[in-house]
Amino acid sequence: MSTLFDDAPAGHSEIAPGAVHVPGWLSVEQQRELVEACREFGRGPVPYRAAKLPGGHEMSVRTLCLGWHWAPYKYTRTADDVNGERVLDFPDWLAEWGRRALVDAYQDPAAGRDYEPDTALINFYDDTAKMGMHQDKDEQADFPVVSLSVGDDCLFRFGNTESRTRPYTDIRLRSGDLFVFGGPARFAYHGVPKIYPATTDPACGLTGGRLNLTMRVTGLG
Ligand SMILES: O=C(O)CCC(=O)C(=O)O
Ligand SMILES: [Fe+2]
């Protein structure tokens, strides 16, 4: 509930210092726009794929990258574990969304000033997909990660920088939500233990499943 003393909009919550959840940040139109763009990205040259972990295990999410290709656990310009093609460029409009996301999440008009994300990981989760607790640490820079979600709700677990175990905070991410983690939270462990199937409003552009896009600054030349 919002009170006279809140200086942040209702529902805008700081999960940990540097980690902010902004429910409903994307309008339904913007969600549809994002879904359509992500469909278009999937037409190539590099398709969505389940990344293989070094032990041989396949991730349950299907992933496509922009700007730089991520395969566990490094960034390259070409998708050598898929078809060897160069990934699509990181679009300017998406970088602009990233800068606006930081301004809104941190309630600071200057927060987006030097933010030039150069990679996006787009993950598609079906009803049973999940993502184990991990750090986003293959980047050589500590700019914030901007995360956008569309489609089914999920349980998002945001932990600490020391270990993949407690203390952590469980939150429900819904279609249109923004989550930003930077500053002292930048290298916190996080994961997606569960999707809540059939919670999507098809108006978002997806009839099932969950799309998550994280943009990052790789710090690579
Ligand atoms: O799906 C999410 O909300 C998180 C995705 C994530 O942590 C990642 O791609 O590294
Ligand atoms: Fe992550």
From TrEMBL:
Gene3D superfamilies: Alpha-ketoglutarate-dependent dioxygenase AlkB-like (2.60.120.590). One of its GO terms (molecular function) is dioxygenase activity. Keywords: Dioxygenase, Iron, Metal-binding, Oxidoreductase. Its cofactor is Fe(2+). It comes from the Bacteria. PROSITE patterns: FE2OG_OXY. Residues 116-219 form the Fe2OG dioxygenase domain. InterPro entries: Alkb (IPR004574), AlkB-like (IPR027450), AlkB-like_sf (IPR037151), Oxoglu/Fe-dep_dioxygenase_dom (IPR005123). This is Alpha-ketoglutarate-dependent dioxygenase AlkB. The lineage of its organism: Bacteria, Bacillati, Actinomycetota, Actinomycetes, Micrococcales.
